[in-house]
Amino acid sequence: PHNHGSTSSGISHLDLFITIMKIKYIPTVEGMELLFSIPERIDVEVAKSYGEQLRGCVAIDTFYQDMFCFKAEYDFKITYDENGTVIFDRDNSSIEISKLDEVMSNVVTDHSVDHTIIQIFTNSVFIADKQCTMTTIPPIFHMQKNPDLWNNIRMVAGKFNIYDWQRPINFAFEWINTDKTLTVKKGTPLFYMYFNSENLNDKFSIEKAKDQSKYVSLFKRCMGSRGLIVRGTRELISRNKKMRDEESKCPYTKFKKRFGL
Q: pLDDT by residue for the chain (261 residues), tens digit each?
């Protein structure tokens, strides 16, 4: 009988079309590289926790296979006063108080919102060299292990194209009950991130960009332009995509890619 699912060498026909897309990681702030690490896959951790029957489910395996976990890189504890000011507990945090504005922001400007919104800057940018979206979701596998935190916050999830647009990824959340103190310890899973490309069979890896200057210039181009306007981000994204498409067609760029320059 013919085995239509594999070749004579035992390799699945599907495997022949699988490629590994390398997602490039760069820190946004020079001199802080030692504070941040590349997100780790969580599929092994999930597999150890789930029973054999669940581990054999294709839907579960596929969902977690290329999912990465972004963890807190420092301790912080915050409270809220009656004036609507976030109070930073320096005695129970590992962040230098003078640097607080570089890692945390109270982004509420619309008083009609139901809850205070806090944004934690990760100082991390993830970039693809071909069409690819990145999605962030709450760390659903880890949330029950930290009920004090996740019963009081609601993460603001998001998705954007990391080929078309280069920006830092941040951890934003609604603070449900500001009467309760928020405490996050270093190593706490903050969110999961996963990627999708035009090729549904693509797998993904994250690596620190070797050509830092190239990717830093992309990031600066996007954020420099965005920082000057109040609205119109979608038009900027469209322009940046066109510029990247044109740059990838440049003969010199192709030469550098071919010879690893």
A: 444 444 444 444 445 567 899 999 999 887 777 888 899 998 878 877 887 777 778 888 788 888 999 999 999 999 888 777 788 888 888 988 888 777 888 766 555 567 888 899 888 999 999 999 999 999 999 999 999 999 999 999 999 999 999 999 999 999 999 889 999 999 999 999 999 999 988 999 999 999 889 999 999 999 999 999 988 999 999 999 999 999 988 765 555 555 555
Beta strands in the chain, from DSSP E residues, in sequence order: 20-27, 40-41, 67-71, 76-80, 86-88, 104-106, 116-127, 132-137, 153-155, 158-161, 168-175, 182-184, 189-197, 203-208
Tokens of 118: 């806090």
Please answer whether residues 108 and 117 qualify as being in contact, where contact means their C-beta atoms are separated by less than 8 angstroms.
Answer: yes
Pick the closest to residue 73 from 88, 96, 87, 94 (CA basis): 94
DSSP letter at 197 equals: E
The b/e string for 110-119 (b: 16+ C-beta within 10 A; e otherwise) is eeeeeebbbb
Joined tokens for residue 179: 């009467």
End-to-end CA distance of the chain: 49
CA distance 200 to 117: 35
Q: What are phi and psi of 49, to 5 degrees?
A: -85, -40
For 112, 158, 220, 226, 242, the CA distances from 236, given in Å and listed in that order, are 29, 18, 13, 8, 10
